[in-house]
């Protein structure tokens, strides 16, 4: 009996591409340490500018929102340029090195802001540095993501490759949290709530920058020997007219499975924006956690990506990619919101304690395994769209496909990033607040909006993947058609 999404061994299997080497998987995975560390640091931006620097929440939220919206077009330009670049270093590697040079400069200005500017001036500072940071990092990340489908073309080996990427990226994110709350923002006599210590953010940003640079060097040099085997475009970007580039974009947008990925990403972007903007507020002002407590949660999460990377490829091979990812995501929605629901309904009244940390850490570990496992499989499903589009159009455009959904996703993300600031302004949450009964009551109000909205948009994202139609048999046919 053949499970969903799979096929029996036959002619298609005889054409199965060779698997990527362990070296490729390792160094490609090490390249995800950069976004893991980058995202851990970036999640502090709202809290840093609002609670540490003292910029009103609505001003910060508006600037962050405008940043995401403004660089949407740049992502498509970068992705298209990456696809059409032809050099002796291949299509992607020049962008990896360019990002490595720009990112440190951008992050320095982002995390060393003036502390005596008026709110209207700080809006423009947050906006300008945010654009610089996002574009610089996109130059690296788009090229890095686009490498994956070429490095592993076999249907299930692709999931294994992306498992390495998610495992190392998520582990780096967790270890970055340890650096954040256990080293640079740890509690001191002068700052008992360490995450409010302004002096810790500068050294923290420099350390995270060093991790990012090391990660980019690893993926760039570690995959360099594969460049001769990678696809080279017939024409370079300066030889392709604007009309032809728009036609390429239109062909990609017309692919059914690509539209499914865009739709699911739009809903997921709302959830990620809200969760990222409010996580530290909930930790600090609802649960009453200190920096050391948050570090413990980060340590408890370290095994999460390892477990997910081990089980996700096996589940995908046993049940098919789509059924496996749907099940994992559905479980993650229920598990991740259970502690908040218990808190809001009065069933969980424990104060900050070791018991509470174990409870929160246990739920976070289970939810994290399901979430990361789902993303590993979905990343592989998105990579399979590359050959699906190529079989239809004859054009291999990983960079464009990775970014053609930027405009709708950025529009949604820009709104979702603004939601935390607007919610905090709605409840009258003060700048430079201190944890106490009043802030707990305010965050409870925010929570009653947060939980149902998160459950709704996360559920819609999962449901959208039901429309996805690429299975192993389809992928094998696409490989034959594009050989």
Q: What is the helical fraction, as a range of percent?
A: over 70%
Mean pLDDT: 86
Globally, the shape reads globular
How many domains in all?
1
Summing up helix and strand content along with how strands pair, one would put the structural category as mainly alpha
- The number of E-state strands comes to 0
According to CATH, the fold-level topology is: Growth Hormone, Chain: A
| CATH class (first level) name | Mainly Alpha
Cα distance, first to last residue? 29 Å
> How do the helices and strands follow one another from N- to C-terminus?
HHHHHHHHHHHHHHHHHHHH
Radius of gyration: 22 Å
Strand fraction equals under 5%
Q: Could you list the spans in which at least 5 consecutive residues all have pLDDT below 50?
A: 1-14
Q: Please identify, by name, the CATH architecture.
A: Up-down Bundle
Biggest sheet, in brief? none
Q: CATH homologous superfamily - what is it?
A: MFS general substrate transporter like domains
Characterize the structure shown.
The chain has 20 helices and no strands. Helix 12 (256-286) runs parallel beside helix 18 (406-426) and helix 14 crosses helix 16 (354-393). It has a single domain (20-482), classed as Growth Hormone, Chain: A (Up-down Bundle). Residues 1-14 have low confidence and may be disordered. The chain is mainly alpha-helical.
Task: Quickly list its features.
Growth Hormone, Chain: A, mainly alpha, disordered N terminus, 483 residues, 75% helix
Give the structure's gist in a few sentences:
The chain is mostly helical and 483 residues long. It is built from 20 helices and no strands. It has a single domain, classed as Up-down Bundle (Growth Hormone, Chain: A), CATH 1.20.1250.20.
């Amino acid at each position: 009996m053949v499970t969903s999404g799979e096929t029996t061994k036959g002619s298609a299997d005889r054409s199965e591409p060779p698997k990527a080497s362990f070296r490729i998987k390792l160094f490609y995975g090490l390249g995800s340490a950069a976004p893991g560390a980058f995202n851990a640091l970036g999640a502090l931006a709202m809290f840093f500018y609002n609670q540490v620097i003292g910029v009103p929440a609505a001003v910060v939220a508006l600037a962050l929102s405008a940043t995401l919206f403004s660089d949407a077009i740049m992502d498509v330009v970068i992705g298209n340029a990456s696809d059409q670049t032809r050099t002796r270093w291949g299509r992607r590697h020049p962008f990896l090195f360019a990002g490595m040079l720009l990112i440190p400069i951008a992050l320095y200005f982002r995390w060393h802001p003036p502390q005596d500017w008026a709110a209207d001036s700080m809006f423009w500072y947050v906006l300008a540095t945010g654009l610089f940071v996002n574009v610089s990092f996109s130059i690296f990340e788009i090229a890095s993501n686009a490498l994956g489908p070429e490095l592993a073309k076999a249907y299930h080996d692709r999931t294994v490759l992306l498992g390495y990427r998610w495992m190392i990226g998520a582990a780096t994110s967790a270890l970055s949290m340890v650096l954040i709350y256990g080293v640079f923002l740890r509690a001191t006599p002068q700052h008992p709530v360490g995450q409010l210590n302004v002096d810790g953010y500068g050294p923290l940003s420099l350390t995270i920058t060093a991790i990012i640079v090391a990660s980019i060097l690893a993926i760039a040099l570690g995959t360099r020997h594969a460049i001769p085997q990678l696809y080279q475009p017939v024409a370079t970007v300066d030889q392709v007219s604007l009309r032809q580039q728009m036609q390429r974009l239109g062909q990609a947008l017309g692919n059914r499975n690509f539209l499914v990925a865009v739709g699911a990403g739009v809903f997921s972007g709302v959830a990620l924006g809200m969760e990222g903007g409010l996580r530290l507020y909930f930790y600090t002002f609802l649960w009453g956690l200190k920096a050391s407590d948050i570090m413990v949660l980060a340590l408890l999460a370290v095994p999460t990506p390892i477990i997910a990377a081990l089980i996700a490829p096996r589940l995908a091979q046993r049940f098919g990619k789509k059924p496996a990812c749907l099940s994992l995501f559905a479980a993650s929605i229920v598990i991740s919101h259970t502690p908040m629901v218990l808190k809001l309904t009065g069933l969980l009244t424990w104060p900050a304690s070791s018991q509470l940390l174990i409870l929160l850490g246990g739920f976070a570990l289970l939810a994290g395994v399901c979430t990361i496992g789902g993303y590993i499989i979905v990343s592989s499903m998105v990579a399979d769209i590359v050959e699906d589009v190529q079989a239809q159009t004859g054009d291999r455009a990983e960079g464009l496909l990775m970014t053609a959904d930027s405009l709708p996703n950025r529009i949604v993300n820009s709104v979702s990033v603004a939601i935390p600031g607007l919610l905090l302004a709605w409840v009258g949450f003060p700048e430079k607040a201190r944890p106490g009964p009043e802030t707990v009551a305010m965050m409870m109000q925010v929570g009653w909006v947060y939980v149902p909205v998160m459950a709704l948009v996360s559920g819609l994202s999962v449901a959208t993947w039901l429309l996805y139609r690429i299975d192993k048999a389809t992928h094998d046919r696409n490989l034959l058609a594009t050989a």
